[in-house]
Design brief:
The complex is a heterotrimer of chains A (631), B (101) and C (174). With 631 residues, chain A is mainly alpha-helical. By secondary structure, chain B is an all-alpha fold. Chain B contains three helices and no strands. Chain B starts with a helix and ends in a 13-residue tail after the last helix. Chain C is mostly helical. Chain C is 80% helix and 0% strand. Chain C has six helices and no strands. The longest helix of chain C is centred in the first third of the chain and has 28 residues. Classes of the chains: A mainly alpha (631), B mainly alpha (101), C mainly alpha (174). Chains B and C meet through helix 1, helix 2 and helix 3 of B and helix 1, helix 2, helix 3, helix 4 and helix 5 of C.
Amino acid sequence: MEHALTLIVVLPLAGFLLNGFLATRFGGNRVGKGFVTAVGCALPFASFALALACLLRLQATGYEPLVETAYTWALIGDQSFEIAFYFDRLSAVMTLIVTGVGSLIHVYSVGYMKDDESYARYFAYLNLFLFFMLLLVLGRSLLVLFVGWEGVGLASYLLIGFWFEDPAKAAAGKKAFIVNRIGDAGFLLGMFLLHQTLGTLDMDRINAAFSAAALPAVSASLIGILLFIGATGKSAQIPLYVWLPDAMAGPTPVSALIHAATMVTAGVYLVARLSGVYAHAPEASALVAGIGVATALLAATIALVQTDIKKVLAYSTVSQLGLMFVALGVGAYGVAVFHVTTHAFFKACLFLGAGSVIHALSGEQDITKMGGLARRIPVTFATFAIATAAIAGIPPLAGFFSKDEILWYAFASAQGGSTLLWLLASFASLLTSFYMFRLLWLTFFGTSRMTPAVEHHVHESPLSMTAVLAILAALSAVGGFFALPHFLEPMLPLPPIVAALHHLEHALIGIAVAVGFAGLAAAAFLYGAGARRADALRRRFPLAHRVLFDKYFVDEAYEFLIARPLLWVSDRVFLRIGDRVLLDGTLNGLAAWAQRAAGSLARIQSGNLQLYALLVLAGMVVALLWTWSHV
Amino acid sequence: MDSTVQVLLALSVALFAIGLLGLVIRRNLLVMLMCMELMLNGVNLSLVTFAHQMGSTVGAVLVFLIFVVAAAEIAIAIPIVLLLVRRKRTLDIGAFTGLKG
Amino acid sequence: MTALLQNLDTLLIYVFAALALVGALLMLVLRQPMRVALALISTMISLGAIYGLLGVHFIAAFQVLIYVGAVMVFMVYAIMLLEAREATPTGRFSALALPGIVAALVLVGALGYGAWHGFAALAGAAEGARFGIQQFSVSFLNDYWLHFELTSVLLVAAVVAALAVIKAGRRTHG
């Protein structure tokens, strides 16, 4: 059909408008929950169907990218800025993930948010998020992508602070938005630089310009670094990852959709999309890989000791994103996208499973107060276990395939791969496997540590939730068999392998599998049988435990080094001096001066008749003199 | 130029200025009224002087009209003063500051 | 003797001019209103004499008749009526005495300056033409009859105003 891409993007927007203006208290509560559910869920599914149709069309035309110009935004001089959509292999993959996993999470939310009073507002915001995310992945120019980029930040803010009556939750939303904006400064600078030197913001043209024989005047590394700064904000890498753990204040389906499967992968998408730039920017790529692996290690160590089920998964997300950036940094763009896909499946499944657990335990999120749930909520347990095995890299589940590829290219890529990189990434994988199985053990196995009131009400989640869990678990299991890197290779070529290391491929696969199982074994050892050994370990290293538990005090450092001085400057300099003294002082001073002038002039009207007569006399004299001198 | 005319004109200027000065200086309401009459007389004198000088009747007619107007004016002004005094119980100009502001 | 008689007019004019000036100056400084009134009356009579010496006898007659006979009598009556309330504890002079004097001097200077420079225009006019009441009345009622009518309207208005004041006076007094 003619405007399929535009429709894909616009359908969720229609859902936002309909639900937002009809079903919420703002619109007067004109329609009920049934309408909200129908509109809110049907439209994402429609987008998914349309995306599939577009993929088929793409296949039919030999993977020639589909381009649709929806609207000419601005004509400035001889430059035109258009809202155009671009559909090629990479966009296809991303769009299917966003709409597919998104639709599933919408269905899950029907059951999860059933008793919430702002049901309509929730679905409106969720549809809004989908709209902006689709703008992001389907946009042809960086400008449209940036609109989507900012928009998903907005949607994230709205959804993290969904229960805004709680000030802590509202603050978490603010933190997410502000930290994102800091990264966006770098993004904007990169965009300006690109536009100034290349004259275009269309990403396909940018890639072509950098791959052409005559290199553009601007350094690819500079652009790469600037855009990557934006990516660190959106995809929660060092130093701007601090918002993601706090974002767990939002409803769990939101955490699943936005902070696991889709929004946080926007940074990965950006780098992969502009592979033409990064392929010619070795410094930038090295930076990307370095930060990626550092973040992966940092987050994995923190996740080892967290006790909130969602926080563990949040740090796990940060860590996995780091691994994706490692892949991007060594030139394996297609592999990174592959990991995005598999990560979307199993991380969404894990988050939704956590949501199911929280739902079953009437709101309890502390894993030290769980345990023994395996038999009580079997479906949740089964899906959670499958997803955990997937993330740990147990073959033949999806995570094994994608993670193994990442580790292989980290080791053997001729564009930045090194043994050190591989060792660090493997260690991060080991930690991942360990803490994920720790989570599984503490939540589902062992004797129950629940309070009696909670234990009494433990129940399996409704079908709308368990069905989605099952689908996602199935995808986590078989998702690795879609050879995505191979599918994307025509547009995202895999980096060349260092010839001497070619033969070690199978050895590395073996090591990766061993790492996965080692984590499982360690977790079972420490946390099986009542977690006594883990407690003993904690008591032996209280300082290390404290540092890890408090996330290396990074938030406190930011608060002390950045937030407080900024606040001081804002208060002392800008508010007190600039605003109150200078601006208000000037205005009030002018007004006071005018008042004083008027006051002194008003003294002429004293009610004293003789003064009036005198003034008449004086006026007369002046008039006379003037007349006589001019006549 | 006849010196008489000069003297009379100077006198009329003086009378007018003295009348105006008295209006500004004196505090008593009735005295102020009388000073206003003095001003009118000064003007009358200058008009008569010019009429005599130029030999036309215009000046005389104007003087006559001024007589009428002065009489009418005083006929109203004094009752006004009476009413004012009845209100404030004093002839002092300082008591009448109702136009203040 | 003839020289004295010829100059008698001029001499008398100067005398009465001096009297008028003295009377006016006295008005400024006398304390009691009755005395001020008497000073004004003397000024007015002097002015009447001057008019007579200038040859406009009817104007002199009107001056004494209307100004002294009506206006000042009314003023004296008002002074006598308000005698008891005459207490002005704050003295004769207002707060604006000094500025007033300065301003008056400036006014005199300005007017004198203007008059001095305007004298040249009056030079060469017919000197001392005298006209009598017949000429005056003919001219008044022929050329200026409109002004005559208007003054009668003004007088009617004055009568009405006086009646209104009486009514207002009656109201406030109960």
